[in-house]
C-alpha cells in the first residue's frame, strides 16, 4: 500500500490524497475518485467508484473517505481538494456539529446536518490519521485534480441510465 514506508521511528509516513467528486444532475448518478501518492517513493494508488442516485457533496465526501480508508497504517495526509464543502467542513464546521449533536442552527431552530453518516465516517478517519486540507480551485489546470475529475465523471457515467433509444 502507498502509505507503508520506512520512516524514522516516531515519524508518520507522509502521503498526498487528491480527491474529487462529480454528479450528473444533483441529485443524480455520481462518481468519486482519488489519487493517493507517497512522494518519497513515488508510488501511487488510483481508485474511483460511484452511485446511481447521489449528490455532488456526497461524492466529494466519499472520495476523501475512500482515500483515507485505503491507508493501511496511521499516516500524515495532505488532502488536496477543490471542494470548499469538504475543506471548510473538516477544518471549521465539524467541531461545532459534533458539539451540537450533529446539528446546525437554522434561524431559531436546530436542523440535522446534511450527509451526517458520511461526516461521521470521515470524522473517525480524521482521528486515525494526522490530516490537513489544502483547497485548490477546480478546473484550473491542476494535473491531479483534472485526473480525479475525469475519473469521477467516468464513474458517474457508468451509473447513468441511458435515454430511450441509446
TrEMBL record:
Q: Where does Mg(2+) 2 bind?
A: 20, 149
> What are the residue boundaries of the RNase H type-1 domain, all occurrences included?
11-157
Keyword Transport in annotation = no
Q: Any idea where this protein resides? A: Cytoplasm
Q: Record's Gene3D superfamilies?
A: Ribonuclease H-like superfamily/Ribonuclease H (3.30.420.10)
Q: Which reaction equations make up its catalytic activity? A: Endonucleolytic cleavage to 5'-phosphomonoester
Q: Name one GO cellular component term.
A: cytoplasm
Q: Which cofactor does it need?
A: Mg(2+)
- What GO MF terms are annotated? magnesium ion binding; nucleic acid binding; RNA-DNA hybrid ribonuclease activity
This protein's assembly is summarised as: Monomer.
UniProt protein name: Ribonuclease H
Amino acid at each position: 500500500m502507498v502509505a507503508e514506508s520506512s520512516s524514522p521511528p516516531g515519524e508518520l509516513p507522509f502521503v498526498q490524497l487528491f480527491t474529487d467528486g462529480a454528479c450528473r444532475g444533483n441529485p443524480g448518478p455520481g462518481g468519486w475518485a482519488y489519487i493517493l501518492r507517497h512522494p518519497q517513493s513515488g508510488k501511487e494508488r488510483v481508485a474511483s467508484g460511484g452511485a446511481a442516485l447521489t449528490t455532488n457533496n456526497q461524492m466529494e465526501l466519499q472520495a476523501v473517505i475512500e482515500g483515507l480508508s485505503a491507508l493501511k497504517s496511521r499516516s500524515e495526509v495532505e488532502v488536496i481538494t477543490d471542494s470548499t464543502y469538504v475543506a471548510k467542513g473538516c477544518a471549521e464546521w465539524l467541531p461545532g456539529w459534533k458539539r451540537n449533536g450533529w446539528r446546525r442552527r437554522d434561524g431559531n431552530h436546530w436542523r440535522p446536518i446534511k450527509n451526517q453518516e458520511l461526516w461521521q465516517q470521515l470524522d473517525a478517519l480524521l482521528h486515525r490519521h494526522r490530516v490537513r486540507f489544502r483547497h485548490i480551485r477546480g478546473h484550473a489546470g491542476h494535473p491531479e485534480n483534472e485526473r480525479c475529475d475525469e475519473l469521477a465523471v467516468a464513474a458517474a457515467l457508468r451509473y447513468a441510465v441511458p435515454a430511450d433509444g441509446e
